[in-house]
C-alpha cells in the first residue's frame, strides 16, 4: 500500500512537471514583455493559439508533424511579434497602464474573433503519435506530453541563455532595468522592445504548437490560459524570467496533485489559491523585483 | 597632461545656443548659451530648479528643447536620438549613480560598450576601465546592486568611459556620497581631464565643483547668470552670496533624473530626502 501511494505521487509529479513546462514557456514570454515594457499583454494566449492553428493548418494541408511545423512557426511568429510591436504596442509604451490593457485586450478580442470566423468554434486537435513509456510497473510517461514538455524546457532554456550570455540579451535586461540609461549606453530601446515582443510571441507560438499535440483547442481556449499565466507571473514575481519558470512548474505540479487527490474541478482553482497564498506570504512573488526607483 | 594645442583650438567642442526648454507648460530654460572647450572641466552650478540638469538632458535629448541648438564637434546634435549620442563620443554619468543593479559589475561595463560589436574589443575596453578603477576589478562578478554608493558611482563613471568618449557629462557626481568618496570621485575627475578628456558637470556642491573646474556657469531660474573661470566665480561676492553662502532661492521645477522626484528648496535639510538615506548607507560601508 505504502509503495503504491508513493508511485501514485510520483506519477502525479511527472504529470505536473509535464504540464508545468508548457505553462512556464508561456509565462516566461509574458513576463519578459512585462519586464521590458511594463505592459501586461492580455493577448498573449491568443498568440499561443496562432501557433496552435498554424500547426493545425500545416498538419491538415501539408501533413506536417507539429515538431517540424515548429521550425516554420517560431520564426514566422518572431517576425509577426516584431511587427505587432512596431504597429501597435510601441504606441502605448510608457503610457498609462489602462491604455496598454485596453489595447492588448482589444487585440485579443480581434484575434479570437478572427479565429472564430476562420476556424469556427469547434475544438480542433492534431492526432499525432500517442503512446506511453512505462517505467517499472506503475509509472507511465505519455510520449506526446513529454515531448511537448521537453521542447518547452529547451526553448525556455535557450531564451534564458540568450538573455544571460549574449550582447543583445544583456541589452534586453539592461533596458528592463533602466530604459533611459540603456539608451544613453547607445542601446536603441525601440529595437530592443521589438526584439522582446518578437521573442515573447515566438515563445507563445511554440507553446501553441506543442499545445496542439496534447489538447484540443478552440479560439476561446485562450481565456483559461491567460488567467493562469497572470497568476503564474504574480506567483513567480512580476518581470522575473526565472520566477515565471518556477511559477509555471509549481502551478503544473500543484494542479496535478490536487486533481489526483481531490477532483479535477478543484484543480482549476489551484492557480488562484496559490496566488492568494503567495501574496499573503511574499507579496513580491518568489523572485520578484522590488521596484525601488 | 593637457593637450598643448587645446588653448589654440578656439573652436568649442560643445556649443549651446539660445536654448529654451520646458516641462509641459512650465518653461525651465531661457536662452541658455554655453561653450565647452577641449580639455577643460566645466561646471554648471545653481540652486535646485535652476535648470542645471535640464541643460544636460537637452544635450542628450532626454529632454527635448523647444528652441535653440546644440552642436558637438561641429555637428548639430539637437535632434539626435539619445541612443545616437554615445556613438559620437559623449559619455554620460546619470544623477543618483544609476547602475543596472541586477547585472554584474562586468556586465554593466559591457553595456557601456554596447556599440562595440566585437566581443574581444569589449573585453579590452572593460580591462582598461578596471585598470583605472582596480576596486571594480575586485568585484567584477558581483551584482552592481550590492556595491556601496561610492563604488556604484565609480561603476557609473567607468560605464561612461567604455567607448573612450571625448566629452564626459556628469550629473551630480558627488550627490549622496560620503566625504571620503567625494574626494576620490573628484580625484578621478581631475585624472580624466589630465588624460585629455573634456568634462561637463552639474554639481550642487558648488564650492567643490568650482575649485576643481577650469570654468563655470552659474544659472538662476533657468537663465545664464554668471560665468568665468572657477577661481573668478569663487571670488565673486555675488556668486558667493547666491550659490555658496546659501540664499533661500526656491525651486521652480523638478529636474531630477527620476520622474517622480519632487522639487525641494535649495538648502532644505537633506536629512529629509532619500539621498540622505544612501548617504548614511555609504557611510556605513566606508567606516
Question: Count the helices of chain B. How many?
Answer: 11
Summarize model confidence as the mean pLDDT of chain A: 91
CATH hierarchy, class of chain B: Alpha Beta
Query: What is the overall silhouette of chain B?
Result: globular
Order the strands across the largest sheet of chain A as they lie in space.
1-2
Question: CATH architecture of chain B, please?
Answer: 3-Layer(aba) Sandwich
| Order of SSEs of chain B | EEEHEEHEHHHHEHEHEEHHH
CATH topology of chain B: Rossmann fold
How far the N terminus sits from the C terminus of chain A, by CA atoms, comes to: 56 Å
The average pLDDT score of chain B comes to: 82
Which class of chain A in CATH terms?
Answer: Mainly Alpha
Sheet with most strands of chain B = 6 strands, mixed
Q: Cα-atom Rg of chain A, whole angstroms?
A: 19 Å
Plain-language structure description:
The complex is a heterodimer of chains A (293) and B (287). Chain A has 293 residues and is mainly α. Chain A has one domain: ABC transporter involved in vitamin B12 uptake, BtuC. Helices cover 75% and strands 3% of the residues of chain A. Chain A has helices spanning 2-37, 44-62, 66-87, 97-119, 143-165, 167-177, 179-184, 189-214, 222-236, 241-261, 264-281, and strands at 132-135, 139-142. A two-stranded antiparallel sheet of chain A has the order 1-2. In chain A, strand 1 and strand 2 (139-142) form a beta hairpin. By secondary structure, chain B is an alpha/beta fold. Chain B has a single domain (4-286), classed as 3-Layer(aba) Sandwich (Rossmann fold). In chain B, 36% of the residues lie in helices and 22% in strands. In chain B, the strands form two sheets. Chain B has a six-stranded mixed sheet, sandwiched between helices. Chain B has a four-stranded antiparallel sheet with strand order 2-1-4-5. The longest helix of chain B is centred in the middle third of the chain and has 16 residues, at 179-194. The radius of gyration of chain B is 18 Å and the shape is globular. Residues 1-8 and 246-287 of chain B have low confidence and may be disordered. Classes of the chains: A mainly alpha (293), B alpha/beta (287). The interface between A and B is medium-sized, with 19 and 30 residues.
